[in-house]
Design goal:
The protein is mainly alpha-helical. It has 4 helices and no strands.
């Protein structure tokens, strides 16, 4: 029961990010919500690969093969973190440019001022 609860909490964290993107008008809050969604996706991948009692997949000579953790999700998460960093930097740069032009982070005011 507890093992399923952590997956549900991970999904709830993802929904918090979706809620932030759909309901917030401030660009900075929207950028933070995308980060929350990314963190929850990474957490889900790590939880999915977790095996209780398993060891890291580094073998040495003469060592008996036991249950090992799959390293592929961990590699995917590392790649995802790097990609998220690039996306966040791009979104922040875009937000700064929009602020320089419109003097606000409110997307409803930016929509009215465009054109």
């Amino acid at each position: 029961m507890i093992s399923y609860l952590i997956y549900v909490l991970c999904f709830a964290l993802f929904l918090v990010g979706v809620y932030g993107i759909l309901t917030k008008r401030d660009l900075i809050k929207i950028i933070l919500a995308t980060g929350i969604m990314g963190y929850s996706a990474n957490l889900f991948l790590i939880l999915f690969a977790y095996k209780k009692g398993a060891l890291y997949p580094i073998l040495s000579k003469g060592e008996e093969v036991k249950a090992m953790v799959d390293p592929l999700p961990q590699a995917l998460v590392l790649t995802s973190i790097v990609i998220e960093l690039g996306i966040t930097a791009m979104l922040v740069a875009l937000a700064i440019k929009l602020y320089e032009r419109y003097k606000t982070f409110d997307i409803t005011k930016i929509r009215r001022l465009s054109g």
